[in-house]
Every structure is written in C-alpha cells, then in structure tokens.
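Inputs:
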Amino acid sequence: MIDVDVARRIGGFDLKVAFRNDDGIIALFGRSGAGKSLTIGLIAGLDRPDHGHVILDGRVLADTERRIFLPAYRRRIGIVFQDSQLFPHLGVRQNLLFGRWFAARRARAIGFDAVVETLGIGHLLGRTPAKLSGGERQRVAIGRALLSCPQLLLMDEPLAALDLERRLEILPLIERLRDEFKIPIVYVSHDIEEVSRLASRVVVLERGHVMAIGDPADVLPSALSDDTRIDRASVLAMRVGKRDETYGLTELIHPAGTIWLAGAHSGEGTKLRVVIKATDVTLSVAPPQGLSIQGALKGRLAEVEALGPLAIAHIALDGDGTLLAMTTRRALDRLGLDLGLDGGQPIFALVKTAALDERLVGGA
Amino acid sequence: MHDFLGPDDWTAVFLSLRIAIVALLGSLPFGILVAYALARWHFPGKTLVTALIYLPLVMPPVVTGYLLLIGFGRRGVFGQALADLGIVLSFRWTGAALACAIMGFPLMVRAMRLSFEAIDPNLEKAASTLGANPVFRFLLVSLPLAFPGIIVGATLSFARALGEFGATITFVSNIPGETQTISALIYTYTQEPGGDASALHLTLVSLLIAAVAIVASEIIQARGEKRLARG
C-alpha cells in the first residue's frame, strides 16, 4: 500500500497532496502546472518534502517528523518519464538490465524474458536508443523500470509525447503490467481517456492541491468543469452486450438504455467505462422516431449550465450516472426544456455511434 | 635528421612531453571531480571556488609562478612540509609539471563542466531510481556521457602544458635536462647569437606535437560521439 501525505513549497508554488492506494492504478490527474510531476519526485525521493511522509508497504521512505529520508536509489520505485530517458550510450539490452544489476538477487521477482515478451521488444535488444521510434523507446523505458523490480511504478505522462496510434499500442501493455506483474502504479496524466481507461482511483490536482479523490466516473466529469467545451465529457459505467456480426457493432448496456459501439469488444458481460464527449450527444423530448430506440439513453434534465450561446445539459440517467450534452440555449428552449417547468419530463439522449472510439473504451 | 635537432633539443622535447603528460594525468581526476561539482552541486562559496580555479587563466603567468615559488619553494609553507616527505618541487621537473597542471586546470575544468551541464538531469534521476548510488550513477551515466567534453578538456590542458613558459620559468627556472622545456629552450636560442635555426627547428617540432595532439583528440571524440549515435 502506498500512503502519501506531503507538503512542499518551491518558489511561490505550494504543494499539498495526500492519498492512499492499495493495488491497481491510481491516477494523478490535472493540467500542467498542477503539481503532478512534483508529487512524483517527492514519492520517488528525487526531492525532499518540507513536511509529511511517504510510506510504501509499511516501509517508511520519508517522514519529516522522524527525520527519515531514503534517497531515490534505495527506494525501489521505478519511474517511466514522458520522454523515456533511455541512456544514449548504452544499448537497449544494457538499458533494460541497468536497474536489474542493482536489484538484490532475492528481489528479482520479474523475469527478463517475461518482460521482453509482454512489451514486444525482443527484436530491439541489439539496437541503441537513437535508432528506436518514440513508441519503441517508451516500451523499452517501461521495461527498464519494470526490470529493476520496483515495489511501485511511477508513470509520468508516459504517453503524452506519442501520437494516437502509438498510444493505443501501449495502453493495453500498461493494463497487462497491472494485471500480470501485480505492480501498483501511480499514473500521471492530463488525458481523461487514458485516466478513465487505466485507473481505478483518481486524485484530481489543481494548483498543488487535491480537489477530489475517488472513482474515475464520479471524479472526472466535475474535474473538467472549467475546461473548454471541446474537453467536456462524461464517463459512464456500462456493460458489454451482444455483438452484431453483420454490421460489426457491439452493444453497450446501461440501465437507461443501450448504445452501439462501432467495432468488436471482447468479453460479453464485462464492465467498462465509456467516455462520451458532450458535443457528441443530441437531445430529444420524444422517443426518437425513425431511429432505433437502442441508440438512446433515457433520463431527466438535472441542470443547465449556460456558456454564452451554448449550454450544457446535465442529464440524470435512469439508473445511475450523469450524461453531459452540449447544445445551444435556443435548442433547449425550442425543445421546451426548462428546469422549472419540465424538470420531471423524460428526455432522450442520442449518442452518435461513430463518435465512440472502441480503442479508447477501457475495462473497469 | 640528426642535424635537425641537437642532443639538448631532444632532451628538451622529451622533457616537455614528460612534464605535459604527468601534468595531464595528475590533474585529470581532480579536473573531472571539480567540473562535476561545479556543474551539479550547490554549496556555499561556490562563486569563490570558481574564481580561484579560473584565476590562472586571467593572471599573468609570472604571477602564478611567483605565487608557486612562495608556496612551494624550499622555504614555502607547503614546500617545507613536502620537503619533509622527501618531495621537492622547486627547480625540479616535477615543479614544472605542477605549474603546467595549474595553468591548464581552468581550461580543463571549463570544457568538462560545460559537458556535464549539458547532460539531461533526468538521465541521472533515472539512474537513481533504478538503484544506482551516486558513485555508480557518476561512473555509469555522467562520466560516459561527458566523455567528449573530457577529451576536449584534456587536450586543452595538455596543449597549455606544452606551451607553458612564464609560470614554469619563474617557479623552476631554465635548467637544461631538468626544467628546460621546448618553450624555454626556444627562448634561450633567441637570446643567443646564431641560435635562429635551432629555434626554428624546435618551433616546427612544437607545432607538430600540437597538431598530433589536436588530431588525436578529434579522432577519440568522433569515436565517442559515434558510439552515442550508433545503431
């Protein structure tokens, strides 16, 4: 278990972060300058907290009151940096084995071959970092951190420097690490889709302070509340339903209705979190005519947030969850939707199937 | 060819090489450590230390030589202590090596410091989180990555040692076979009637040595850089 409660003041910036997590992935979520990387440095021992403690599986790594501070090289915490930071003067194999050399023999629980196979980097072993692509470099960096047999893995925006294709290659690998090697991970990101896909808990940071901690579906939508309209999205817990082989679609089931996912998703019945952008949702007061009802989610208008000519309708879905829909204020008026008069009236939210990217739909 | 350089000339050439090599090898470990400390550590009095190290670069060499004479001469503070240990520097070739090392030290440290500063600190942080203690981190990451700069610094210091004149002649004089280096001998020839030809011959040899040193360092450096970008 990781138990972090640290305070640090650098220049004019005040950081105060506290959280705990057992297994799985906990995400530190926030925009740049929120203090995410600073927190990572304090956990890893690259920086000293002014106050507080860091405890990992009962091992006190830092405690200002007891005057304990373990340097980074004795903490057994691996870091994957945004820009990989592979040693340019060493080959890929030597990079991978760097940390292993320092790990005590008894602590070498993670096998070299297993890591190389999981990350698919066997064909890269003879190369040097300069000859790797961005995605390959990042996979080697993950392997290098893993092979030092850490008790905790810190990932500091590991995918931020990669394009979408590379990101989609590496995301499932991180999921496999979590599941196969049973390593707890602290994952830093400002990307809502990554976080909702990977993390079981999210710490939302803003200007050095914790704004919220909890399940991604509860915490993430409100964390985005003052972002631009492009970034507004909701996270819904859903279940995988039947597959339509003819058209290559997969059903996603929510108590409020079902929507369709273009593409195949393995495992009927598995639970997952779906990120739906507010701009991809259309509202209707009547059950949609001429359209399959199965493309819609039923709920009630809970709140209207005005954004100039636009508005975000918060729809409390039947069952559980809130869906955000971006529309114009005029459209809301023409639909006759008004909180005061028609708050109890059922409305239907249509989610554009083509807007859901099956590659970004994550397991819960 | 045997007329090109006389026996005294050859003695001076070998003596110069010996002094320069000893000065280089003796100051190299200190130069690397000081350069790393200046590049990476913050400590009180850092500015003062930096100024002291760079001082020989801006002071007249004669002043440096005279300070060495005061400090390391037979009656000097350090000179007496060293004499008790059986080490005499004044008017010996070892003293010339010390003078050359001190004169070349700022050039050496400067090149190496820039090279250490150019290393991404995150690489060193990565090494730490992988379990490397500060010593291993330095030996396995910082030192190899600063290698090109270390070669440049070593070359500059070596070249400075070969060319050193003012501090050397002030500290250890111009004794044939003991402290008479190429530079000192060229100076001697120019003071004698009919010494022009000998002075020119030694000058050519001096040029040759400098050229070989520069080319060798370029080759070593290119090899190091190629290793960093190899595939």
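Residues 164-181 of chain A form the longest helix (18 residues). Flag for discussion at group meeting.
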